[in-house]
């Protein structure tokens, strides 16, 4: 079964064509900087044993143009991997917010699309782009079945004590206001790899997903029991451009005392805060460079970023009454030695001790970075949301 996986972001589309159940990646790539200067389509494929990589710079005003350009690469006579878009049997979409309606992977119907649309206000940076990805894919891959895999689904096992908020009951009962949690596909994928690696299922795990968006999950025997994100993907950890946890009074102060509109506050907290707000840069590689240049703001921002993760580790250990392993993943978690070091140092009370040398440059698919006397395993595991989405699609439609 050929599954074309689409991970639509606000300004990018990551994609992979995966043959299931062999898990063979036929091609992959990204459409970057949609609607901006310097837009480009990247395409990688293996043809008769040779790896090829093509980059096409072109104006990409919207997702439709971007996905069309990908379809042209897929079917190109020299470097294409299929003859016709109709050879794609299933398109798997990452959809960030599934609310309480969707606890599992869904075949996309008009009704499902309507529900995804109703959830726009809860994930304004993500769901509109995911929805657009579905609409465009339906036009290009006309014969394919379209499937939605929700970031929120994995977190639906949280107990009420973790997902309810202490606000009047009617807001939950009538309007579904509760903690949902995100990046579930990634938390699920890396926690399953960890369980396989450690050779048992009865585990208390904390997964730390650090990409542009960042979140953590407490996972007991494979089920999520708590997570750092809530109603929308804004709270919890400090992120590239999002503040994470702040005192709610800040919002009222910005509106009532400083005269900002609610829309402006939303933009500030979603797009201008986090590492960007603290340093002027949202990309960790830029911030590392600033630290090397001796920029004190960059140093402080790193400390804040790691301190927040430490606090969540402490609270999740308390929630699970124990801990077997912490797993780092996502662009920062996989690549940024300094973040892992800052998070894990001075955590010996909780049985966490990092080995500086092992932490230098993880090379294995699953790399242990704890010291020999650490009670808790510290693992670096690359995430693969696209593969997990393809697996979910195969699980739903494979037989
Ligand atoms: N070698 C590296 N060192 C530090 N950070 C890195 C490195 N490579 C990537 N990153 C960081 O990873 C983040 C993006 O992670 P990624 O998981 O790709 O994000 P997303 O999927 O949310 O777009 C960026 O902040 C980037 O700086
Ligand atoms: C939910 C979320 O924050 O996703 P991303 O990290 O892709 O922005
Ligand atoms: Mg991501």
Textual characterization of the structure:
- GO terms for molecular function: acetate kinase activity; ATP binding; magnesium ion binding.
- Its cofactor is Mg(2+); Mn(2+).
- Homodimer.
- It holds the Pfam family Acetate_kinase.
- InterPro entries: Ac/propionate_kinase (IPR004372), Aliphatic_acid_kin_short-chain (IPR000890), Aliphatic_acid_kinase_CS (IPR023865), ATPase_NBD (IPR043129).
- There is one protein chain.
- The chain is an alpha/beta fold.
- It folds into two domains: 2-150, ATPase, nucleotide binding domain (Nucleotidyltransferase, domain 5), CATH 3.30.420; 200-380, ATPase, nucleotide binding domain (Nucleotidyltransferase, domain 5, 2-Layer Sandwich).
- It has helices at 63-75, 110-118, 127-140, 160-163, 169-175, 184-198, 249-257, 262-271, 274-279, 284-292, 296-320, 330-335, 337-344, 356-360, 385-397, and strands at 2-8, 13-19, 24-32, 40-47, 50-57, 90-95, 106-107, 145-150, 204-210, 214-220, 223-227, 325-329, 367-368, 377-380.
- The strands form two sheets. The chain has an eight-stranded mixed beta sheet with strand order 5-4-3-2-1-6-8-7, sandwiched between helices. The protein has a six-stranded mixed beta sheet with strand order 11-10-9-12-14-13, with helices on both faces.
- Strand 1 (2-8) and strand 2 (13-19) form a beta hairpin.
- Helix 1 (63-75) packs across helix 3 and helix 11 (296-320) crosses helix 13 (337-344).
- It is globular.
- The model has no long low-confidence stretch (mean pLDDT 95).
- The protein binds adenosine-5'-diphosphate, acetylphosphate and magnesium ion (MG).
- The site of acetylphosphate (UVW) has 10 residues, from loops.
- Adenosine-5'-diphosphate (ADP) binds at residues 211-213, 240, 283-285, 330-332, 335-336.
């Amino acid at each position: 079964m050929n599954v074309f996986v689409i991970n639509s972001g606000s300004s990018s589309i990551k994609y992979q064509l995966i043959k299931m159940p062999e898990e063979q990646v036929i091609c992959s790539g990204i459409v970057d900087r949609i609607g901006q200067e310097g837009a480009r389509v990247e395409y990688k494929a293996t043809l008769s044993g040779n790896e090829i990589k093509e980059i096409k710079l072109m104006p990409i005003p919207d997702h439709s143009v971007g996905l069309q350009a990908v379809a042209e690469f897929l079917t190109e006579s020299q470097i294409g991997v299929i003859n016709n878009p109709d050879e794609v049997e299933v398109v798997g979409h990452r959809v960030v917010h599934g609310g309480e309606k969707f606890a599992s992977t869904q075949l996309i119907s008009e009704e499902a699309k309507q529900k995804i649309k109703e959830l726009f206000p809860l994930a304004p940076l993500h769901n509109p782009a995911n929805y657009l990805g579905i609409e465009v894919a339906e036009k290009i891959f006309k014969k394919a079945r379209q499937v939605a895999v929700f970031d929120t689904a994995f977190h639906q096992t949280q107990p009420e004590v973790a997902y309810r908020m202490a606000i009047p009951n009617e807001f939950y009962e009538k309007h579904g206001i509760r903690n949902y949690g995100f990046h579930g596909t990634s938390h699920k994928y890396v926690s399953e790899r960890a369980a396989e690696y450690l050779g048992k299922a009865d585990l208390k795990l904390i997964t730390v997903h650090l990409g542009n968006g960042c979140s953590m999950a407490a996972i007991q025997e494979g089920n999520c029991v708590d997570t750092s994100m809530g109603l929308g993907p804004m709270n919890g950890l400090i992120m590239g451009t999002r503040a994470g946890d702040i005192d709610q009074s800040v919002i009222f102060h910005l509106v009532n005392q400083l005269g900002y509109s609610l829309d402006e506050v939303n933009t500030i907290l979603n797009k201008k805060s986090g590492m960007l707000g603290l340093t002027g840069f949202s990309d960790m590689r830029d911030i590392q460079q600033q630290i090397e240049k001796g920029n004190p703001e960059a140093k402080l921002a790193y400390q804040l970023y790691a301190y927040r993760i430490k606090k969540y580790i402490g609270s999740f250990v308390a929630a699970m009454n124990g801990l077997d392993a912490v797993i780092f993943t996502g662009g920062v978690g996989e690549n940024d030695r300094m973040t892992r070091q800052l998070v894990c140092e001075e955590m010996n009370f909780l049985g966490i001790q990092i080995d500086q040398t092992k932490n230098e440059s993880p090379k294995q698919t699953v790399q242990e970075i704890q010291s020999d006397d650490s009670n808790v395993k510290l693992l670096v595991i690359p995430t693969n949301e696209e593969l997990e989405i393809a697996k979910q699609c195969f699980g739903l439609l494979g037989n």
